[in-house]
Amino acid sequence: MTDRPTTALPGAQIAGRPVKVGFISLGCAKNLVDTESMIGLLRNTGYQITNRAEEADVLVVNTCGFIDAAKQESVDAILEAAQHKTRGRCQALVVAGCMVPRYGEELAREIPEIDALVGTADYPRIGEVVAGILAGQRVQQISDPDSITDWNFERVLATPGYTAYIKIAEGCDCACAFCSIPLMRGRHRSRPIESIVDEARRLAGMGVRELVVISQDTTYYGLDLYRKPMLARLLRELAQVDGIRWIRIHYSYPTRITDELIEVIATEPKVLNYLDLPLQHGSNRVLRIMNRPANAEGCLRLVQKLRERVPDICLRSTFIAGHPGETEEDFELLLDFLRACEFDHVGVFAYSQEEGTKAGQMEQLPEEVRLARRDRAMEVQQEIARRRNQMQVGRELEVLVEGRSPRGRGWFVGRCYRQSPGIDGVVLFRAPAGAELKPGDMVQVRITGVQDYDLLGEATEPLTVDGIAQEQDLILPVFHLTRHQ
């Protein structure tokens, strides 16, 4: 990764002091990476980053537009930021992210406090945008979402310093009937391997131990840029980066899971035996309505194949309940599919009607039906998850320490390979008296019990700690992180 010049931009100071910029980031981890990049770009050109909205001269809201609830949350955050402008110190309000390509002009009309709009392909120009609005301009920087992103950026992590998301591509070529992401993020554009590995080395130098590999469809990686699937090759390259201990794969598409990828998961120690595999439904009829190329039988065979080749693999998936056209019989097939697959972790979402999508134009099921089906599916999965967790009792697992646990003296909280940050539960474990563990340390923990979605355990004695050689200079921005998609 090439460093950005550190020359301060015009407008980076007010009355002889640095301009303070605060961020509110919403949506998925991919959006969070964009926020981290904007923070890095601004800090590198003379701006100060604050995690107190009331101190900010400029507030940037990085919006999510995936479903109605996310859009409403984004609008609420913009209105909250607008109050800081009308009543407080804030002098400028920037709205960025997924809502801008589709709703930016409407937002600017309805919320006059907005000074600038920044599209999903334009965050590398955030420094110019902020300088412009502080000079009295109103800025709309909205390029075609298919634009090629400049990947050579600095990042300031908004995650704990031992974990980082690494985005390997932008956009999506899938045409799922329910999804508006291609309208907001454009077509799939893979990032060069050299750029990704370069960033991974830099993150490792900052103290990062866990890389979470993300994009809209990680298994599509390379098909555009290299004309063949390249995720397995990329994972092998990332595994060579000194300092990285865990590599976790998210957003993999079932029809593009290759034997080579399975082999890398099975044999490369740094690539965790963990796979996020969004399948969306268990009824072939609904999958066709959704315009998903996979079928339930093929997905079940894939799950069985993964467990045969990688016996202790942890599988996560997501499903949609109440999609247009879903009958009660279809929904029962979804429940049967959950029981057959026995995923370790599952998220079930009630279908949300999205403007501009094929499913959005179909006859909709009543909201109460969608919500009730979501709840029923989660009840089925809760029992499965408890049973899968119970199978871990007696195992000794490597745990990444995240901090002290509120359970009391001598208790700590961390995660094992089965637990992705923020969505899959944690390991609550007791360490020997006087143990000095810090976030980012790796310890061996014997699992002794289960508490809901969490695991309970005890650090093995004698306690061996693999600590971080270098701690990251962490700046936590003003942000709210939600998990849509």
Automatic annotation (TrEMBL):
EC number, UniProt record: 2.8.4.4
Known role: Catalyzes the methylthiolation of an aspartic acid residue of ribosomal protein uS12.
Domain (TRAM) ranges: 390-461
Cofactor note: Binds 2 [4Fe-4S] clusters. One cluster is coordinated with 3 cysteines and an exchangeable S-adenosyl-L-methionine.
Start and end residues of each MTTase N-terminal domain: 19-135
Domain of life: Bacteria
Gene designation per UniProt: rimO
Required cofactor names: [4Fe-4S] cluster
Official protein name in the record: Ribosomal protein uS12 methylthiotransferase RimO
Domain Radical SAM core: 158-387
Classification via SUPFAM superfamilies: Radical SAM enzymes (SSF102114)
Swiss-Prot/TrEMBL catalytic activity: L-aspartate(89)-[ribosomal protein uS12]-hydrogen + (sulfur carrier)-SH + AH2 + 2 S-adenosyl-L-methionine = 3-methylsulfanyl-L-aspartate(89)-[ribosomal protein uS12]-hydrogen + (sulfur carrier)-H + 5'-deoxyadenosine + L-methionine + A + S-adenosyl-L-homocysteine + 2 H(+)
GO biological process, one term: tRNA methylthiolation
UniProt-listed PROSITE patterns: MTTASE_N (PS51449), MTTASE_RADICAL (PS01278), RADICAL_SAM (PS51918), TRAM (PS50926)
InterPro entries: Elp3/MiaA/NifB-like_rSAM, Methylthiotransferase, Methylthiotransferase_CS, Methylthiotransferase_N, Methylthiotransferase_N_sf, NA-bd_OB-fold, Ribosomal_uS12_MeSTrfase_RimO, rSAM
Binding site for [4Fe-4S] cluster 1: C28, C64, C98
